[in-house]
Structure formats: structure tokens, C-alpha cells
Automatic annotation (TrEMBL):
Residues 51-70 are annotated as: Disordered. It comes from Rotaria magnacalcarata. It comes from the Eukaryota. This is Uncharacterized protein.
Length: 70
């Protein structure tokens, strides 16, 4: 086994152990960074919409109670 990168054949694939241990999914090389960012942005926007919907539903539930108390 080689230990010095200079001694490695030119077609050798070096893998960083940190890369092997990560849990994040890396997009394939066929996907550009812009496409990946657009997908992530879309996912985050969907989550924000869901959070806003759930919080507005909660607020609607609280509002009738406050109106009854008046």
C-alpha cells in the first residue's frame, strides 16, 4: 500500500475517510451545483409553507377561544 501521494499511479482514486463517514447525500456529477441548490431551495420553501400552514391553523384555533372570552 502506498503512503505518499507522489508514489501513486496517476489513475489512482484517493478517498478521504471523512467523505466515507458523512451522512449527507452528495449529488451525482450529472447534476450541476445550481441544479442541486435549486432543489434544496425548493425543499426548504416547501418546509416553510408547511410550517406557516401549521402555525396559522394553530392561530385560528386560538383566536375563537380568545373571542369567546370577550
Amino acid at each position: 500500500m502506498y503512503h505518499d501521494e507522489k508514489e501513486l499511479p496517476s489513475d489512482t482514486l484517493l478517498i478521504d475517510m471523512d467523505d466515507l463517514n458523512q451522512t449527507q447525500i452528495i449529488p451525482s456529477k450529472n447534476m450541476t451545483l445550481i441544479e442541486h441548490q435549486a432543489r434544496e431551495k425548493s425543499k426548504l420553501e416547501q418546509q416553510i409553507i408547511l410550517l406557516n400552514n401549521s402555525s396559522s391553523t394553530t392561530n385560528k384555533r386560538k383566536n375563537p377561544e380568545s373571542n369567546d372570552n370577550k
